[in-house]
Amino acid sequence: MLNKNLKQDLEQIDSILKESGISRRDAFKMMGLGGAGLMLGGTEATAATTLKASDAKGKIVIVGGGLAGVATAAKLSNSLSNPDITVIEPNPNSVSYQPGNTLVASGIWTLDNITYETQDFMPSGVKWIKDKAIEFNPTANELKTAGGETIKYDYLVIAAGLVNDFGMIKGLEEVGEVYTLDKNDAAKAKKIIGQNGVGSIYFSEGAADTWTQMQKFVADAKAGKKVTGVFPEPHTPFKCGGAQKKVVNLTNARLEEAGARANADLQFLTNGKKLFGVPEYHTAIEDQMKARNVNVRYEHKFTAIDLTNKVAKFEKHWEVKGAWDADLEEFEMVTKTEAVDVKYDFCHIIPPQKAPTEIAKSPLGSEKGWVPVKNDTLQHVVYPNVFALGDIAAVPLGKTGGSARKQYSVVCQNLISLMEGKEMTAKYEGYTVCPLITNIGTVMLAEFKWKDVAAASGAVAAPSFPLDPTQERWLYWLLKVYLLKPMTMYGMLPGRA
Ligand SMILES: Cc1cc2nc3c(=O)[nH]c(=O)nc-3n(C[C@H](O)[C@H](O)[C@H](O)COP(=O)(O)OP(=O)(O)OC[C@H]3O[C@@H](n4cnc5c(N)ncnc54)[C@H](O)[C@@H]3O)c2cc1C
Predict the structure, then answer these.
(1) Pocket of ligand 1 (CB under 6 A)
(2) What CATH number does the domain located at 2-162+355-492 have?
(3) Tens of pLDDT, residues 352-376
């Protein structure tokens, strides 16, 4: 069946490419070049910062050495003739491949396939402080580490990602805050999540345990038990907006493979009114869910979980017309709510997410916590020698490795321009990508960016490849499973792509 899909996709690609005068070989080269260009940000070459081309000087400190921080350190090291770069990062595995968690949770990969040592990716010449930055004084251009060191800088880049806050869900207070790749946090979270039918791919060991829980769920259905799987999305922004859709689709695939789908009720609950901000992607995903008999419930805020009785708790909300407002000449809208309980046999949790508190509450943070930057240049709105990128940046959309890949190039170019006293010309356009796994063997590659780039608002499809982006394809499965990881680890992290 997969071969048949591949054949169809290749035939379709060939016919489309023929019209454009491109061979399939060249097209694959294009894919390889932008690389995971496709996931990681388009097909154009963004290596605009030429090797050691700038003699600009200044001490650059990068807080957070995950995907965005290490890629930024690498590109700046490559571009400056005399780089003075310090990365502050406490986690020895901070560059492990988070997008692989979905594949671990469905038994396609194991933890070994996604675990990497930061020391192998830290660019040579970059000073690595294995600690956390906990206090920020941007008017004095200095910060303090948890170990008590005061560090001065000329330029600061914030790439500290986000933290999963399981504690915002009643019933999971004991789990509290968990960084996706932190082994100590994982040990704490594992005591509660990853057993009794509950899983979460938002920490790596949780992904491995999710696979165990998913297998039990499938086995029960196969044994003839009528089971319910519950897949809620959180009410906060979260990294990889397509993650819950991927998990429900992979659960569906494993049930079908076992011949047990008829015994399972799969429920997908979201706080919003849509499945995706881009209308054509929303429609495509809704159709996919319908075709797989997944019960989609909108406007359900996931608030609590009763682990003992296996009940997920939601606040259903909707608006009704209230009193007529004579001044505004319109009806007031009143929000109604109702408590909804859903019993589960398997529940996959995506926790609410937020910026790390020490940054959110510092002068660099904002009311909502995310670091406020100008949407196009990614320069801090108050402190011109500070930039932010990756999950922690307060830009609309984003929060994927694909966005970070676009952003790190913009930050490096603009930071060097600033150091050289030139105008900053590199601009981020809101690019984001979700390789939405729809089945074992197919992916819909949802690429998009801001519809109104100047206002950084709305969302519009932005496909890198001349194929209908709303279609599920075997070709993109190959990209997701075989190409994106090497392109991230050996293209983006060394600052090359
Ligand atoms: C389950 C899952 C699936 C995903 N799927 C995809 C996908 O398919 N496609 C895609 O493009 N993206 C995906 N992503 C998202 C992608 O992994 C992130 O968007 C990306 O890692 C963001 O990079 P970052 O550098 O901002 O954050 P991170 O890579 O998380 O790094 C942040 C670093 O900052 C450090 N830090 C935090 N606070 C401090 C501090 N005070 N001082 C010093 N250091 C600090 C942390 O230790 C961490 O190492 C997925 C993520 C998850 C969890």
Answers:
(1) 39, 63-69, 88-91, 94, 98-99, 101-102, 132-133, 159-161, 179-180, 201-202, 239-240, 243, 356, 358-359, 390-391, 399-402, 404, 433, 435
(2) 3.50.50.60
(3) 999 999 999 999 999 999 999 999 9
